[in-house]
Amino acid sequence: MSTIIQTENLKKHYPIYGGVFKKKVASVKAVDGVSLNIFKGECFGLVGESGCGKTTLGKTIIRLFNPDSGHIFFNVPDDIIEEIKRIEKENPKSRRLRRLLEQYDAAHFKGENLRFLRRKMQIVYQDPTTSLDPRMLVKDIVAEPLAAQGIAKGEEAEKMVVEILRRVGLTERHLYRYPHEFSGGQRQRIAVARALISRPEFIILDEPTSSVDVSVRAQLLNLFQDLQKDFNLTYMFISHDLSIVECISQRVAIMYLGKIVELASTEEIFHNPLHPYSQALIASVPIPDPTKRKERAPITGEVPSPVNPPSGCRFHPRCRLAMDICRRNEPRLADVGKGHFVACFAVSGEKR
Amino acid sequence: MTDEEILEVENLIVRFYTYEGIVEALDGVNLKIRKGEILGLVGETGCGKSVTSLSTLVLVPPPGSIEAGKIFLKTQGKKVNLLEQDRETLRTVRGSEISMVFQEPRAYLNPVYSVENQISEVLLVHRKEEFLKRAIETIKKKKKGSNFELKLYQRMLEKPKSLTTKLLSKFTSKRTLKMELHNEVVALLKNMEIPDPERVAKMYPHELSGGMAQRVVIAMALSCNPKILLADEPTTNLDVTVQAQILQLVSLLRKNFQSSILYVTHDLGVVAEICDRVAVMYAGNVVETADVFEIFNNPLHPYTKALLESIPRPGKEFKSIPGVVPSLIKPPRGCRFHDRCDFAMEVCRKVKPQFLEVKKDHFVACHLYGGPK
């Protein structure tokens, strides 16, 4: 499998200004050093509690936010990534590195390069009522990326709009309507059509089903799966609903306070979770079967503030396995075999 | 758990008179809550779950109105129809007999009062006499507080309506009474498993996290030991880990306080986790009620079946219910589910199915299972 997206130590901090002179006094470490690979054609699930930085990570990968540091490689051959890493280590100020980054690292893209990136990476937001302009016709909403990217105009554009609307289960009857005339599920379909029309390769689905009912949810999930096959798409599925992620993704990453704590195939994550946080998270999902009721001990306490995350491993104040080393050192995301990565001293046995 | 019914809703009809037309929100809802049980009320958005729980408190906001039906509450061995009571009686019922927890806890907490202030207010409205007596006892026992305070509390007990009492109680400090209230608030918060209740009591709502705010609201709802707690999607906006904590708390409270809980939710996982019985609602009707095991293993109504099949399960295709929830302004005639139902017959289009007991304790409103044709 070839990699479509590779991030290296990606960071995004939001500054907090305070004091008389509005100086930067602290920062919210929303994404704090995330490295991951997304393979072509897969659905990559990203799971975590609210405020753990899931959405920020997604938006940073497609450059809706500018990362503070780190690299994003989108469809870059391995040897170039290797070279960039090598030069960075040897001579971080060289001109060649800067040129390479501007050419290949999406985190450093500008101008035309960035515009082309937008064509290839798209996003579907959580709430279609707020992500669709209430004063635009469906036709104009869906055609907007075509105009912005200079792909098509006029009749040609309208033809493409009709074609894409059909693919998402709407018809040309819907062209001259406003978003408020649609139900929640249909609105989300419009948002999907808008994301698809520029023929992207990678789409971020940011909790696309959390604002719709169970019966409509299944329709949308089926649509996502069909479209993935038809358009050869790669998804990053951001959600806090683990039961959906289990059904739709091939690999899952679990995030806690701006860091990825565990990354593995869906099978592995749900049947053999290794990180104590993943275990607690998966155990706290209610199972829709009354015969499988369990006496469980939910994790106590709440997520600490990302402004001032705990030292060492960020989960240690709530962790049942916490050791001395967890308070001092930060665990690395280590491979424990079969592409299963965990960031925990207790599990990986790593002493650093 | 006994089979004694503590609340009975019979044939409740609620309509909302809007400019677009008459919304037939509830169309003859039947519901029974037994003593000490958790009854789950499940359904999609807009099916009337929240209106049902608001109606049981006779709190349907305008332009809505309760058109017909009966709501029986059993208090002190008597059966009382809440819809026939005057406002004063209803005021005593709300909060002390039936109380409610809402979906958005922060929207129901006043941002300018501290947690302690808000819970004390509830206590003062419903349990004022009890606390006055307690305060008097404390003064007598510990010889703390002034003679004036003692006289004032006695006067507040004896002549609560006189103007002098009101003025006096308004402009004096009432330290002992406040101490009593504070202790009770802290005890209540402690029951909700809130760490460091003394500190939390002094906090303002914006300082609380979502889960903590929900605990405070539950503490407020339980402050008068209600017999029935209506919980309207109390964990919908919370994370799964916090939801697990709240669910554990709810089942613990049921054990400790012996109250009945109506748990409104759309999450079948939550239902399976904590409920004893389940009522499934669709478009303003309760279509099926049964034991939780019965509902999951042997659902009878086609809608219940479809709802259970729409739960995502790994390795299986996602199944959805075709069509959309009908508008309640001009709802379908007959059975309101008929145009989405795989088993729809001629009779379904014309006659509304009756709510019948098919098996012991298993009620269904569907023509497939008998009833007059």
What's the helix and strand layout?
The complex is a heterodimer of chains A (352) and B (373).
Chain A: E1 3-18, E2 23-39, E3 43-47, H1 54-61, E4 69-74, H2 78-90, H3 95-104, H4 111-120, E5 121-124, H5 128-131, H6 138-149, H7 154-167, H8 184-196, E6 202-206, H9 214-231, E7 234-239, H10 242-248, E8 251-256, E9 259-265, H11 266-271, H12 276-283, H13 324-328, E10 334-335, E11 341-342, H14 345-348
Parallel strand pairs in A: 3-7, 3-8, 5-6, 6-7
Antiparallel strand pairs in A: 1-2, 1-4, 8-9, 9-11, 10-11
Helix pairs in contact in A: 2-3, 6-7, 6-8, 7-8
Chain B: E1 5-18, E2 21-34, E3 38-42, H1 49-56, E4 64-75, E5 78-81, H2 87-96, E6 98-101, H3 115-126, H4 128-142, H5 147-158, H6 163-171, H7 175-191, H8 197-201, H9 210-221, E7 228-232, H10 240-257, E8 260-265, H11 268-274, E9 277-282, E10 285-291, H12 292-297, H13 302-309, H14 346-350, E11 356-359, E12 362-364
Helix pairs in contact in B: 3-7, 4-5, 4-7, 5-6
Describe this structure in words.
The complex is a heterodimer of chains A (352) and B (373). Chain A is of the alpha/beta class. Chain A has 14 helices and eleven strands. Chain A has two domains: 3-252, Rossmann fold (3-Layer(aba) Sandwich); 258-348, no CATH class. The mean pLDDT of chain A is 89. Chain B is α/β, with parallel strands linked by helices and 373 residues long. Chain B has helices at residues 49-56, 87-96, 115-126, 128-142, 147-158, 163-171, 175-191, 197-201, 210-221, 240-257, 268-274, 292-297, 302-309, 346-350; strands spanning 5-18, 21-34, 38-42, 64-75, 78-81, 98-101, 228-232, 260-265, 277-282, 285-291, 356-359, 362-364. In chain B, the strands form two sheets. Chain B has an eight-stranded mixed β-sheet with strand order 6-7-8-3-9-10-12-11, with helices on both faces. Chain B has a four-stranded antiparallel β-sheet with strand order 2-1-4-5, covered by helices on one side. In chain B, strand 4 and strand 5 (78-81) form a beta hairpin. Chain B is elongated, with a radius of gyration of 23 Å. The mean pLDDT of chain B is 87. The A-B interface holds A 49-50, 183, 185, 213-219, 221-222, 225, 240, 242-244, 246-248, 266, 270, 280-281, 283-293, 296, 298-302 and B 44-45, 195, 209, 211-212, 239-245, 247-248, 266-273, 292-293, 296, 306-308, 310-321, 324-325.
